[in-house]
């Protein structure tokens, strides 16, 4: 297939590098043809692979798949200059982040944890255990050798420390997820876990985790 | 520490089982003392460990830590009967789920992907690649032996199949995340990834993943 990547920033360039190693044709689309070509040439020079560059409309014209790799705020503008996308597959690789990357500009209001904190003013609330299927407790806190990660978020450091010790004492791996308002992310994390486990049939012996690249 | 678990359902019972194996004292709080005792006795009988049962107010009174393990909709009610929580640590293990578990009742409006789909009516939008730090493309799609998981969500099955093949061809592990509206969960997943990588100092060679218990 012909894949058009709209955006020549870190994400667009990174995607072009990995996709250029596949059997798919990759074209990078930029505001100007010159900018698109420069981005593609830089990748080929440094990295090899098969990447061409062009302006957005030209890059999109012959594409089967169009990857939007621009800031979300620019997507409306980019779509307007892209020409017809009818019948093409559009991959949305964007995130509706605030300018300081600290939050989302869509679907971002409150959380159960924050609502609960309003009701228990004198007590520090820590979000925790909300992404662990109850069936996991029955089978034990480890998947083979690997402890299930339990995310905790709160605004009171002493309370967070105590909770992390409880999580680890129970055999889980306590993962600091930041301030209480990050419950706005931990609750959707649980919702996605439920979607995967039930709607998508993966069952309840699954859990979200953050994995890291081992040091070389 | 004394830990009070409010709620005797699957989550409360599961937490009581794992916490009863720690050095912490565990008391389960239910609507009535009889119900709390029955829940605790069942755990001790089946599972051993040190768990007591009582009514909510009594269970909370001497607790250092109170775990809310009831449906979110019941939390206001439970807090009202719990008595003073001042100075105690409250662990919120709830999720503000809709009755059919299909979504969230807080912080749940729209997503970049859905807004983009409105703008490109003729083209199926697939959410993908939004949880991969650009720096991961530079280092390669695998962490050691393990391919980084790339989540994709959309409403057009053919488009999703094509995108999953592209993801796998690039060396990642394509994970079906369901319909396009699940971008409402994938975008917060990216926001949490950014919080962990930047605000919490874990760096950019990290990625969210779903892990599974190996079959025994």
Automatic annotation (TrEMBL), chains A, B:
Keyword vocabulary terms for this entry: Oxidoreductase
Keyword Ubl conjugation: no
Any single Pfam family the record assigns to this protein: F420_oxidored
Domain of life: Bacteria
InterPro entries: NAD(P)-bd_dom_sf, P5C_Rdtase_cat_N, STEAP_metalloreductase
Any GO MF annotation of the entry: oxidoreductase activity
Annotated Pyrroline-5-carboxylate reductase catalytic N-terminal domain residues: 3-96
Signal peptide positions on this chain: none
Keyword Oxidoreductase belongs to the record: yes
PANTHER family reported in the protein's UniProt record: DUDULIN-RELATED, REDUCTASE
Name by which UniProt lists this protein: Pyrroline-5-carboxylate reductase catalytic N-terminal domain-containing protein
Upper lineage: Bacteria, Pseudomonadati, Pseudomonadota, Alphaproteobacteria, Rhodospirillales
